[in-house]
Structure formats: structure tokens, C-alpha cells
Automatic annotation (TrEMBL):
Family as reported in the entry's similarity comment: Belongs to the gamma-BBH/TMLD family.
GO biological process assignments: carnitine biosynthetic process
Protein name as catalogued: Gamma-butyrobetaine dioxygenase
One GO CC term, this protein: mitochondrion
Names of the cofactor(s): Fe(2+)
InterPro entries: AlphaKG_dependent_hydroxylases, GBBH-like_N_sf, TauD-like_sf, TauD/TfdA-like
Segments forming domain TauD/TfdA-like: 169-401
Gene3D superfamilies referenced in this protein's UniProt entry, alphabetically: 3.30.2020.30, Clavaminate synthase-like (3.60.130.10)
UniProt keywords, alphabetically: Dioxygenase, Iron, Metal-binding, Oxidoreductase
Top-level taxon of origin: Eukaryota
An annotated Gene Ontology molecular function: metal ion binding
A Pfam family assignment: TauD
Length: 445
């Protein structure tokens, strides 16, 4: 039976990728791998090919889930009648000889009698890390570091709420959030202020799935008249990230400005990914210290006991990159963990060198050239990457003859407020999922 491999994957790929293999010439069989000459002589090990087979026997046609374990593939898997060093051109080979090349791809009959087919595009996509990334839309989703000057040139820093009704507008906004970690949606209705019916819930669910925390699904940041609680005052809030005392802090945060009748209260955003890259180039030893020294974050209040240690700069692959002194560019960074207000006491064994390293990092973060500032207007909603982009807010003052309105309920009665943001957190995977699906649909429309 002929098993078609990779057909379903190709249906999800952008059409631009389907045209990129211009020539399709020949393959050569070696002892352990198939060498595809049109893909820069990429070697595809037989064990990888057999394990990656997506035929109905290998991948369930309906669930698209793998039906065998990688550990099940025999270590000596090879095509039937393998001839070492045999070059097979398009239109040559046969099932009997184990490998056959056609205009569409490569068919392999395995020694145990099964047959797989590997489409040209499937092989191209998996030939190297870069093409695999591109197939998963890295160009529109991978983090791009920014400064104050460069973020203003990003294509969709401000988008109209109405534009999110169209797939193109929504994909552009989500792509902006994934790439730069910062997007402002303007013109979001402010009339509904109750969590169940407010526009932020609708907006957030367009982007992804709301992450519920002990603050609830949606929560309010308000300035309360005569407040005794610092959280509800007009004091300065320095650069920070939210909920770093969680094992898995929320990736994105959305803040919708429902009311703003004060002077000041400007929001600040800083790309800590860019700051990390700057530190890498300025002082590699200090960069390394921030990737390896755990910092404690905690919330011991209001009946909660939350505690987690994270390194300030979290590498994607610490085992590979933390001690690789030959690197000339920053290694991939998965998250930044920087939130001074939520720090607990540092571990007693923290190296003395860590303190000046953290000071240096803070100085880079505080550099005005790295700061994007914006005063939210009523109807603006900012979404940002809470694992990468720091946020802050300056103090604000009451206007003459302050315009107070009822805010959220505290205890028995309404509070009065003149600055009111409603917020929520969003999970990362739902946003990535929707933007990739949207890009696939746009590419095929
Ligand atoms: Fe915050």
C-alpha cells in the first residue's frame, strides 16, 4: 500500500512555501540516510524518515496524532534492497529497489514491506531549522527587540478596534503583539463597565483565552477617592512584570482605559529583551550572571503564600548556551523575570557579583532611549507581553474640580474614581495558535 506522507501538513503551509523548490533532481542513498541534492545535499536519516512518516499507519488520519513512539522505530530501519551510493534521478527507481523519485517527491519501500511517500515540500520544510521556523510563521511571530525609536516604526503599534472585525486586522494586531510585545487598540467602547458585559472581555477573547488568576478573570485598577490602600492611589508605579511569583506567570496582559480624568498617569513600556541583548554586548560576564542566578519572587499577603525563583534572563537552552563563551550574538531568550516590587529576599548564597550585574541591567532598562511612553486615553486598550515588556506608570494629580464617578464596589458601597483601568491576562498558546491559523487562511484566500 502506498502511504502518502505530509499531505495534511502541506495543506496548512503558506502557498509561498509551495513554490520555493524550483529544481528537483536526484537523491543518493547512503548507508544510513537519503541525500537530497536539490536541498543542498541535506541528509535525511532513514530512522528520521520512518519516524516522521505521516501515513495512516503512522498518524491517525482523523485525529492527526502519532500512532507510534519514536522509540518503537527499529534502529536499523532502511529501505528494502538498499544500495549504498546509488544515485536516483527523477522518474527513476522502483518499489523493488526501495527508493523511487517522482516529480512529487520520494517514495520509500521499507525493508519490512511498508511504503512511505515524502512530498518535496515536506522534505524542504524539514531540511533545516530556518525553513521549519518559516513554515510555522516565524517571520510574523518571533520576538523582535526594540528601542523607543524603533517601536514607533513598527507597523501596527496602534490599531483601530473596528479593524479587528476583519481577519487581516486581527492577524496584524496579534502579530504585532507576538513580535514586539506591545500593541494599542484604540476606540474600544467604555460604556459597559461590569466584568460580564465589558468590551475588554470581548476584545481579549478575540486575541486568545483569558487566564484566570486569584485576581479573577478580569480585574480593576482604579484611583479611589480617599483610599487607604496604596494599590488604589495615584502614586508612581515603577517598571515591573506581574505575577512573577507564579511558577508559570501569564504571558500577555491587557489594560483597557475606561476613565482618565487626571493629570499625568503616563504609562511606560520597556523591552527587556532588547536590554538583555545590550547587556550581552556590553558585559558578557554580567549577562551570564543574570542567566544563572536565581531571584526570589513572593506574595505573602491576603491569605496567599506564593513563592518562586526565576533567573532574571531565562535562556531557551541554558545547558547549551549559559557557558558557551564562543557566542558572538545573544543566545535565544525565552523570558525575562524582572519585578523589583515583588522580589523576596535573595537566596543567601547569591554571588556578590550579581548585584552590580543587576544594577547594570536596571540602568539599561532606565535609559530613556529604551522607554516608550504613552498616556492612555479613554477607549484605549494596551496589550503587552508580560514575560518580556516591563510596564510602569507615573504618579498623577487630580484635576481642578475633579470629575469623580462611581467605580467598583468595595464592601457595602460604591467607590468614587477618576481613573479606571480594567485588566486581564491572556495565555500565550491561544494567541500563537490563532495568528498562525489566520495567516494560513489569509495565504490560501
Ligand atoms: Fe502591573
Amino acid at each position: 500500500m502506498l502511504l502518502k506522507t505530509g499531505t495534511q501538513i502541506l495543506q496548512r503551509l503558506p502557498t509561498r512555501a509551495a513554490c520555493s523548490v524550483r529544481t528537483w533532481t536526484s537523491v543518493t542513498t547512503s548507508r544510513d540516510a537519503l541525500i537530497v541534492h536539490s536541498l543542498k545535499d541535506t541528509s535525511f536519516p532513514y530512522i528520521w524518515l520512518r519516524d516522521s512518516c505521516q501515513a495512516p499507519e503512522s498518524v491517525h488520519p482523523s485525529t492527526r496524532q502519532k500512532l507510534h513512539r519514536s522509540s518503537d522505530v527499529p534502529l536499523d530501519t532502511k529501505p528494502a534492497n538498499l544500495k549504498d551510493g546509488a544515485k536516483i534521478n527523477v522518474g527513476e527507481g522502483s518499489a523493488e529497489t526501495g527508493v523511487r523519485v517522482s516529480e512529487d517527491g520520494v517514495e520509500i519501500r521499507w525493508a519490512d514491506g511498508r511504503t512511505s511517500f515524502f512530498a518535496r515540500e515536506f522534505l524542504r520544510v524539514h531540511a533545516n531549522e530556518q525553513s521549519l521556523k518559516e513554515a510555522h510563521f516565524s517571520e510574523r511571530t518571533e520576538s523582535t527587540p526594540w528601542t523607543s525609536a524603533t517601536i514607533t516604526k513598527s507597523p501596527n503599534l496602534f490599531v483601530e478596534y473596528g479593524s479587528l472585525q476583519e481577519r487581516t486586522g486581527l492577524v496584524d494586531a496579534m502579530s504585532q503583539l507576538l513580535k514586539y510585545g506591545l500593541v494599542f487598540v484604540t476606540g474600544v467602547p467604555t460604556e459597559e463597565k461590569v466584568n460580564e458585559t465589558c468590551e475588554l472581555k470581548t476584545l481579549a477573547e478575540k486575541f486568545g483565552e483569558i487566564r484566570r488568576t486569584f485576581y479573577g478573570e478580569l480585574w480593576d485598577v482604579i484611583n479611589v477617592q480617599n483610599s487607604k490602600n496604596i494599590a488604589y492611589t495615584n502614586l508612581d508605579l515603577g517598571l515591573h512584570m506581574d505575577l512573577l511569583y507564579f511558577h508559570h506567570p501569564p504571558r500577555f496582559q491587557a489594560l483597557h482605559c475606561l476613565r482618565n480624568r487626571v493629570i499625568g498617569g503616563t504609562s511606560f513600556f520597556v523591552d527587556a529583551l532588547h536590554a538583555s541583548h545590550t547587556l550581552f554586548h556590553q558585559d558578557r560576564a554580567q549577562f551570564d550572571l543574570l542567566t544563572t542566578t536565581p531571584v526570589a519572587f513572593q506574595y505573602l499577603n491576603d491569605g496567599h503564600h506564593l513563592y518562586k525563583q526565576h533567573p532574571t534572563i531565562q535562556l531557551e537552552d541554558p545547558a547549551k548556551d549559559a557557558s558557551n563563551l564562543s557566542l558572538t550574538s545573544p543566545p535565544p531568550i525565552s523570558h525575562i523575570n524582572y519585578s523589583p516590587p515583588f522580589q523576596g529576599p535573595l537566596p543567601l548564597g547569591t554571588p556578590a557579583e550579581f548585584y552590580p550585574a543587576l544594577r547594570k541591567f536596571s540602568d539599561i532598562l532606565d535609559d530613556p532611549q529604551n522607554t516608550y511612553s504613552y498616556t492612555l486615553r479613554e477607549g484605549d486598550c494596551v496589550l503587552f507581553d508580560n514575560r518580556r515588556v516591563l510596564h510602569a506608570r507615573t504618579a498623577f494629580q487630580e484635576k481642578e474640580g475633579a470629575d469623580w464617578v462611581p467605580g467598583v464596589k468595595f464592601g457595602s458601597g460604591d467607590s468614587m474614581t477618576n481613573r479606571w483601568l480594567k485588566g486581564c491576562y491572556l495565555e500565550a498558546d491561544a494567541v500563537s495558535d490563532r495568528v498562525r491559523v489566520g495567516l494560513t487562511k489569509l495565504a490560501s484566500s
